[in-house]
């Protein structure tokens, strides 16, 4: 309804609602709905002129994902990005959760399918 009305601030409000729905759907584990919400999130981002990464990844998570995808270890990634190894572990865990994968290899394949590499 917000998109149809298209009033001042409606796209931003719709975007907030979709982000919240993505967060809830990720926890509940309903992949078909999550995929639809992510598509809607990207469409809203285009309309508002902002860039959105798939599955709600942050820019830093994307950096970690790219490095992990080329086979770097957590320690190597930490050195490359000037962050702690613990922070890398947390980012990798978040990436795997958001992408709904169970290994770094699957995360790399997911990144490739989503044109992130």
Describe the structure.
- With 117 residues, the protein is an all-alpha fold.
- The chain is built from 7 helices and no strands.
- Helix 2 runs antiparallel to helix 3, helix 4 crosses helix 6 and helix 4 packs across helix 7.
- The longest helix has 19 residues.
- The N and C termini lie far apart (35 Å).
List the helices and strands and how they pair.
Layout: H1 2-5, H2 10-28, H3 31-48, H4 59-69, H5 74-81, H6 85-99, H7 104-113
Helix pairs in contact: 2-3, 4-6, 4-7, 5-6, 6-7
Tell me, what is the CATH class of the largest domain? Mainly Alpha
- Which consecutive residue ranges, at least 5 long each, have pLDDT under 50? none
- How would you sum up the global shape? elongated
Write down the Rg. 16 Å
Question: At CATH's second level, what is the architecture of the largest domain?
Answer: Orthogonal Bundle
Count up the domains: 2
User: For this structure, what is the CATH homologous superfamily of the largest domain?
Assistant: Winged helix-like DNA-binding domain superfamily/Winged helix DNA-binding domain
